[in-house]
């Protein structure tokens, strides 16, 4: 009975972990530029004396989905969506370079260009700081041009360029802060082939319908394992009762 109980208990635990990953994805179905976390069950033999006649399942992370989310038009000139592959380079809270697909930007009163999460956007020489301006233009290649205060409309001046990168997906991993970094931690060069769409944002790539169906399926699997644990207990009690009768 202990073997049955162990396998059922482990199945319930791993299903619970898978449900946590799925719920995390569903919670971010409306998060701009979010990339869904992927996981998969893996079957492993139970090691021990004798033959490996039993197996148990383990839920393991298999990275993130890099499928592109739906691009929606917002009309906000500071909203950017990556057109195809690529990332916006930002400075994470720990000072390292990280990458995001969330292009809802803002400019502070001191001229800093920040993301929604108040992370500095990287430019050619580090975090971008803009001079006082009347108008800001963002080109499809990330070029930032400003109209200085009191100047004629024809005096647009290029001040910096948003750092757009495109490292191979296999070299990227998501951190606990939701940002992506290269596995080796190396700073990536700007990629001139990456372009942006101004006045648009990319939605999360989480499929809400698939997530809800998976949530129901995992809940049923969890209930099945709990029932198996109850059956193991009943069998154990019945066996103990038979022994007492002898």
Helical percentage: 25-40%
Summed over residues and divided by their number, the pLDDT gives a mean of 91
How do the strands of the widest beta sheet line up side by side? Answer: 6-5-12
Question: Which structural class best describes the helix and strand composition?
Answer: alpha+beta
**What's the end-to-end separation, in Å?**
20 Å
Rg (C-alpha, Å): 26 Å
Q: Encode the helix/strand succession as letters.
A: HEEEEEEEEEEEEEEEEH
**Beta strand count:** 16
- Count of discrete structural domains: 2
Low-confidence stretches: none
Number of helices: 2
CA-based shape: elongated
Percentage of residues in DSSP E strands: 25-35%
Describe the structure.
The longest helix has 38 residues, at 208-245. A hairpin with a 5-residue loop joins strand 13 (172-174) and strand 14. The protein has 2 domains: 2-67 and 206-245, no CATH class; 71-202, no CATH class. The protein is built from 2 helices and 16 strands. It is α+β, with helices and mostly antiparallel strands. The protein has helices spanning 2-27, 208-245; strands at 37-45, 55-64, 71-73, 80-83, 87-91, 97-100, 106-107, 113-114, 133-138, 143-148, 157-161, 164-165, 172-174, 180-182, 195-198, 200-202. The strands form 7 sheets. A 3-stranded antiparallel β-sheet has the order 6-5-12, with no helix packed on it. Helix 1 runs antiparallel to helix 2. The two termini are 20 Å apart. The relative contact order is 0.21.
């Amino acid at each position: 009975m202990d073997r049955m109980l162990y396998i059922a208990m482990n199945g319930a635990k791993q299903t619970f972990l898978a449900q946590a990953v799925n719920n995390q994805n569903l919670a971010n179905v409306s998060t701009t530029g979010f990339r869904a976390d992927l996981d998969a069950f893996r079957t492993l033999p139970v090691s021990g004396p004798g033959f490996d006649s039993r197996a148990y399942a383990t839920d393991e992370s298999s990275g993130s989905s890099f499928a592109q989310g739906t691009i929606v038009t917002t009309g906000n000139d500071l909203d950017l969506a990556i057109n195809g592959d690529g990332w916006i380079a930002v400075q994470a809270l720990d000072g390292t370079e990280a990458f995001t697909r969330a292009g809802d930007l803002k400019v502070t009163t001191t001229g800093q260009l920040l993301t929604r999460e108040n992370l500095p956007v990287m430019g050619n020489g580090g975090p971008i700081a803009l001079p006082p301006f009347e108008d800001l233009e963002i080109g499809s290649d990330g070029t930032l041009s400003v109209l200085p205060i009191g100047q004629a409309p024809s005096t647009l001046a290029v001040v910096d360029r948003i750092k757009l990168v495109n490292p191979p997906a296999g070299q990227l991993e998501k951190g606990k802060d939701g940002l992506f970094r290269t596995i080796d931690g190396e700073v990536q060069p700007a990629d001139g082939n990456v372009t942006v769409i101004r006045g648009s944002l990319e939605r999360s790539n989480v499929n809400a319908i698939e997530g809800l169906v998976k949530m129901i399926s995992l809940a049923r699997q969890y209930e099945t394992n709990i029932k198996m644990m109850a059956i193991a207990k009943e069998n154990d009690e019945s066996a103990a009762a038979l022994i007492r009768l002898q």
